[in-house]
Amino acid sequence: MAKGHFEKLLEPGYIGKVKTRNRLVKTGAGTFIWHEDETHMNKRILAYYESLARGGVGLLIVESPTIDYPAGARWRQRYRIDDDKYIKGLSELAEVIHKHGCPTFMQMNHDGPWEANILGADSPFKGPPIGASVVSVKSENDFHNQPPRALSIPEIEEIIDKFASAAVRAKKAGFDGVDINAASSHLLHNFLSPYWNRRTDEYGGSPENRARFVTSTIKEIKKRLGNDFPVSVCINAIEIGLAAGIPDNRCITVEDARQTAQLLEQAGANMIHVRSHWLGYHVGAYLPDLMFYPDFPLSLKDLPEVYNAKLRGKAWNVILAAGIKAAVKIPVMVVGKLDAELGEKVLEAGQADFIAMTRRLQADPNYPHKVADGRLEDIAPCTACESCLGTSRCRINAFMGKEYNTVEKAAKKKKVVVVGAGPAGMEAARVAALRGHDVTLYDAGGKLGGLLPIAAVVKGTELEDLPKIIKYFRNQLEKLGVKMALGKKVSIKTIEKLKPDAVIIATGGAPVLPDIKGIDGSNVMGGAKLHKNLKFYLKFLPPNLLRWLTKFYLPIGKRVVIIGGSLHGCELAEFLTLRGRQVTIVDTAERFGQGMVDVIMAYLFQWFNKMGVKLIGRVKRYVEINSEGLVFINEKGAEEMLPADTVIPALPLTPDLKLYESLKGKVKELYAIGDCKEPQLIADAVSQGMETARAI
Predict the structure, then answer these.
(1) Among 84, 429, 436, 445, which one is least packed by beta carbons within 10 Å?
(2) Helix axes 452-459, 527-538, angle to 10 degrees
């Protein structure tokens, strides 16, 4: 693709007097890679931000260090900037970013009204939350179930001073500007919103008064650092209350947000960063694709037209940003599942001046350079798995969260054989080839991907597009000259004939059948049988088409009992429920959803409750499967029968080390990775593939 295709996206821009390299901006989303006790940068955070700076992003906004400890923090996995002793550490980070010619802003926020113990977090703040007024929203999907204590005017003024002092420290540390987070549902947004802010003093009531906290903060920063030090402000361009049963006209309206943007501009703001917010759906507000998982909570017809929900999360805030841009003269930045193509269209249409993203840049920090070089096919895809959300890692970029971020050439070229073309094997082959080795990738199946195509049938591709992973690896392996022997089974004789220097076994795990009387019955759909059937059809049909066809025909009865409540069982339950089955999940464990990202699991379990999916945990013993269903001993020790037309074991895979064990002592270097070593998640498999190949 010609470079000129992204002419607008790749041109420099200005935020105040700071010149950006292009119009792509990495937002200040948190990584949880550092800790409140640190006064210097750890190697992991330096590697993370250096990879982004080196990758060509136009501006890098560093996640919010704590400006008010402990009242402003709800997690300990954040650096601090509430004292001068933290300046030196931040200067180390600014230096690494600047080394690659990238400007950087430091984001600032205050968690104020959030509950002290969010999702069971070990919060440094133990007191009641603080906010504009004593207002809360009871929701499993939000952080505002605990009513806050209303701040006094002296306390507000003290926090303004803390914001300004943090900005001064940011400049001393070498940052080129600051970004104030007055969006999401943090403290500053809490004051901007007429729903949250019920005050009658100078910080409540009129739009000017509700904005006073933010405008006073901007003015104080400018007073101390001068007009040439840029200040960008992130705001919600609309606040939606319908999912929480709150009329939208009681929240921030489009008109409110535009007036707020004008007030911020008058106070000295140099850029407005546009987001949006849902009351009662915190995470879905900033990860818009999650609003549609497993199902959208409202009808799209109920939303105002300026809220762009037609693309199911993509370009979520663009129309809102265009409205803000029409109201101010300073630049406007927009975020919300945007990519280079959408970003270019937004810029060409004059709807925004900068395109913000996080997940795509975490998946591939070199995204900007690859766009500039016209190498879109080389971009590692973000599949929106949300592994990065609080876990400090990425499914496709195994370097995220590591102390290193490069692949070095090997001192000696070796002949490497990789057996198994799932995620672990594909990444191992890719990295080994990058190191200069002669690599051959074998797989007994005829296609790349291992179990990814099967997972794509169950998961679908709207939230997690797993086929993109396969396409990316296929392209990279071909470009790197990896020899692919698909449809060929490897034995000891194969290895003896090839005489490789190193063998990486990535043959995956094997489905498990629990030891239950009747497990071989005709009404049992075991994992091996299920995989075999799906693999047969996937020879002729792509995953999406096969998934669509299962809406019309699926050889599974109306009443289904799934044995196993971890990730695989829960995703299968979702798939079957969407196809009209009555599903019950049983497990010996107390906790369901093991392996799922917390927020996705929370959304899914609420949907299960809505759809009548039953979860039965703490099963003491499975007695038998008969023609009527599953008989088991419940947690109280009583025998119970679950009627079922079909019983499906969905237990985690078991390691398959047969080939690995047979090759011990027969090759110089032998490794086992992925599910064949220990069945885990895709992110684990890719990470093991990278680390193993990097060591050869």
Answers:
(1) 84
(2) 90
